[in-house]
Amino acid sequence: MKPTTFFITGTDTGVGKTVLTALLARYLRERGVNAVALKPICSGGRDDVRVLHAATGGILSVDEINPWHFRAPVAPLLAACKERRRINLAEVLAHIRGIQKRFDILMIEGAGGLLSPLGEGFNSRDLIEALRADPLVVCTNRLGVINQVLLTVEALSRESAAAARVVTMSPSKPDESTKSNAALLAEQCHGRKILHVPWLGRKFELKAGLRNLQVRKVLRELASGLRMGAT
Prior knowledge:
This protein is α/β, with parallel strands linked by helices. Helix content is about 40%, strand content about 20%. A six-stranded parallel sheet has the order 2-5-1-8-9-10, with helices on both faces.
């Protein structure tokens, strides 16, 4: 079977990409799906990578999940420059494709938003296109999200935009737009189904998140798109 590849991107940094990736990875693995998650490039702390490592049961090492890590909490391209290092697109793709051959489902979490520069002349959009991955666009359900999602989807190629799924993540403090954003997004995205993950607390706990009925509904919906029969 040809591996299915998801690329989890976002409208910004800190919108919940790691939370969604970890939840989906564990959900699939608990159902016997040979799935794994990567965050090939990151800057700043490595906490997100450790969350993915735990969610996938340590099937890959931290360094396999995240081969390119830089200390400065800025865009990876700039963080690499500060360390006098370079991130080459061909090397990143070679690593991802090597992992891809070992699994049926591969989830790749990007760093920052879709067009945030990851390395020398490439960003998450370039990885999505090169890998022919299905994008998951993650966003925070607050004022401004309509514009952010529309810009992100519009920046994708026509084929990638057609395959993209949009997942809103509840903020700790909802605003007046939070209840209405999903309906307006679906309208503006020409009927595209918008999935919604509730607020899961300031400290994310994977097991507790998986027990949440709304979370399970979202994961079931995403899994059904894989045609794997996960429930």
